[in-house]
Specification:
Order of helices and strands: EEHEEEEHEHEEHEEHEHEH
Largest sheet: 8 strands, parallel
Number of helices: 7
CATH topology of the largest domain: Alpha/beta knot
Number of strands: 13
CATH architecture of the largest domain: 3-Layer(aba) Sandwich
Shape: elongated
Length: 245
């Protein structure tokens, strides 16, 4: 006998909804409806995977499809909200495009919180946090996350260090060197601190090294762009201490 096809299929589109999900009808309009109707060519009876960053992932089935809106029948919970490793990414905002990429990869790699940190050499001191969250939502829809990273408001480096709780390790990617990241990282709440394109200045570097809980780390023999360094450091932590094991 032929195998029963998986339901819902792996190709089923995923959408984030901003309200807690529960069994029953759910109206979809705006850009999400355009995506389902015009891009995915949704028909009545087609499935959609839904997640809300609160209750988990649910199955929705198209009950009616209009030109500009869709009504889904939310039928069952497919998965609980994932447990998120306790890792923050604290990074200086980069130029548009680069910081968007960093936010996407932070979400895909599994960070719990993204903190834009304003330093003396930061090029962009007022990043658009709503745009960063939108990029993270798109990344989560694609990579299967059921929990979105928190996007914090920008904070100056001096304030971040002043208020730092030393029960959370602060792994500082220092271009002047430190212990190899894979050896320095330990279990427990953690954050990774990445500087701007021009790096931290001497006074900032001294202040970071003097912060309780700060651990200077090295990310290999090559000079990395800030966004690459962020992805590399998060990947090392996730492989060693996170949920990649």
């Amino acid at each position: 006998m032929p195998a029963t096809p998986a339901w819902p299929p792996r190709s089923t589109p995923r959408l984030f909804v901003a309200t807690p999900l529960a069994p029953g009808p759910l109206g979809i309009d705006g850009p999400q409806a355009h995506y389902l109707v015009q891009v995915m060519r949704m028909k009545v009876g087609d499935p959609v995977r839904l997640f809300d960053d609160a209750t988990g992932e649910w199955l929705g089935v198209a009950a009616s499809v209009g030109k500009r809106d869709v009504t889904l029948d939310v039928t069952e919970k497919l998965a609980e909200r994932e447990a998120v490793p306790d890792l923050w990414l604290c990074a200086a905002p980069l130029k548009k495009g680069r910081v968007d990429w960093m936010a996407e990869k932070a979400c895909e790699l599994g960070v719990a919180r993204f903190v834009p940190v304003v330093t003396r050499r930061t090029v962009v001191d007022k990043p658009n946090t709503e745009r960063l969250r939108a990029h993270m939502i798109e990344a989560a829809e694609q990579c299967g996350r059921t929990a979105l990273p928190e996007v914090a408001e920008p904070v100056k480096l001096t304030a971040l260090l002043r208020d730092w709780n030393d029960t959370r390790a602060l792994y500082f990617a220092d271009e002047l060197g430190g212990a190899p990241a894979a050896e320095a990282m330990k279990h427990g709440p953690a954050a990774i601190l990445i500087g701007p394109e021009g790096g931290f200045d001497d006074a900032e570097r001294e202040a970071i090294r003097g912060t309780p809980g700060a651990v200077p780390i090295a990310l290999g023999p090559r000079i990395l762009r800030a966004d690459t360094a962020a992805a590399a450091a998060v990947a090392i932590w996730m492989a060693q201490m996170g949920d990649w094991q």
